[in-house]
Amino acid sequence: MKLNHSIMALLLGMSISTMAMASIDIYEFDSPQQEAQYRGLIEEFRCPKCQNQNLAGSDAPIAQDLKQKTYEMVKDGRSDTEIRNYMFERYGDFISYKPPVRPSTWILWFFPPVLLVLLILGWIYKARKGRSQLSADDTQALSSSEEAKLAKILAQHGDKTDDKQH
Hints:
Layout: H1 2-22, H2 32-44, H3 61-75, H4 80-91, H5 106-139, H6 144-165
Helix pairs in contact: 2-3
């Protein structure tokens, strides 16, 4: 009975380790440059199925296929530009975390800096407007009714300080 449990545990352990090894990509390259090129590209390319995950970190079937295709193209001696162009033609600009600058991607490239500049200019305008209103308020003369109220308050305050001194 103990032998059956031991065999079952051994088989279970072997199947788990086999499944874990299946998700590890083992590619052989002709040179360290090819491996670096491959690693750089799979870090740059986005998995079409996953939400905001690159090919290197994805185990989705489509990611596995794209890693295999990238590997084959690197082994064939294709340049980064050729591989990127292939991926863009096939999967669109979404495939890359660094999409090319073209009219369809202008909003991605130019909207954030333009928005930042507009916000800074608005903040500067508002700060200057607030200062100019503050200094204009300081230089305005009091109306006659406000002067009368102020004189009354000062007179009352003067009477209270005189009483404390005596």
